[in-house]
Amino acid sequence: MRKYEIMLILPADADDKVIGTATDRISQVLAEHGGSVDKVDRWGKRRLSYEIQRQTEGLYLLVECQADPAAIKELDRVLGLADEVIRFKVVVRAA
User: Fold this and answer.
1) What CA dihedral angle connects 29, 17, 86 and 3, to 10 degrees?
2) Residues linked to residue 92 through DSSP beta bridges, in sequence order
3) What pLDDT does residue 94 have?
4) Which of 64, 78, 79, 94 has its CA at 20 to 30 Å from residue 33's CA atom?
5) Dihedral angle, C-alpha 4, 20, 9, 25, nearest 10 °
6) How far apart are CA 17 and CA 50, in angstroms?
7) Dihedral (Cα; 43, 1, 25, 12), 10-degree rounding
8) What residues have CB less than 8 Å from 38, skipping those under 6 apart?
């Protein structure tokens, strides 16, 4: 299994329920494929470099996880369809 970092940008007015929904969705997809979430780090509300979907601020989350590449492919699909996620980026962590 590889180690990954997932950066999520959620709407600035997102509450704990929305954050929980996003992290639960990630945990569920990874668990189905034998992966796991190691750490969820809330960076808080930050100003966006440019306007995205008419929003100038977003709530940033950093999720560290372990998974197979097939799980990440499915996670890309699921997060792309999620309404509560403005943007996301998945990168492989260096060992």
Assistant:
1) -40
2) 4
3) 80
4) 94
5) 50
6) 26
7) 20
8) 3, 64, 65, 66
pTM of the model: 0.89
Q: Which residue's entry shows tokens 């639960």?
A: 24
pLDDT at 95 over 70: no
The predicted-structure confidence for 15-71, as pLDDT tens digits, reads as follows: 999 999 999 999 999 999 999 999 999 999 999 999 998 999 999 999 999 999 999
Find out whether 1 and 30 touch, Cβ atoms under 8 Å. no
Q: Return d(Cα 38, Cα 18) in angstroms, integer.
A: 20
Strand partners, 59: 10, 45
For each of the domains in the chain, give its residue range(s) and CATH number, in order of start. Answer: 2-92 (3.30.70.60)
